[in-house]
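We store chain and fold; thus.
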Amino acid sequence: MAIFGKTESPAGTPAPAEHPVPSSPPAPQSVIGAKARFVGELSGDEDIAIQGRFEGNIDVTRRVLVAPGGEMKGDIHARSVVVGGRVHGQVRAEERAELLASASVQGNVSAPKVVIAEGAQLQGNVAMSTTASARGPAKERSEEQ
């Protein structure tokens, strides 16, 4: 007897289920745990999650998450940045920066797309431009020209 679309083999045992074709492996992720503290510079090509304390600069080609309860003292530069904790420094994203309701940022945020949830705290400026996201504050850009 077939149940829920399964067929039975001649001996009465269910036929083996088809296994889905595995997709590409998940992107690697580095995590600074909730009880950890890291001091230094971090760069690379993987997602970063800050759940504890990080002091220094982060420059990665992928995503940075400062989780609720996480603290970051330094600048962040990544493809996308999501802040749910506290950041004291500049946030630069090549594609998108998002401040969750629990976020507290003291510093400038620059990205082509910026999302600031109701309840998020930001003490600084926001720059939304496809060319300005990786270039820094407006004062520095005007001096370069």
About this structure: The first strand starts at residue 29 and ends at 32. The CA atoms of residues 30 and 48 lie 5 Å apart. The first helix runs from residue 138 to 144. The radius of gyration is 22 Å.
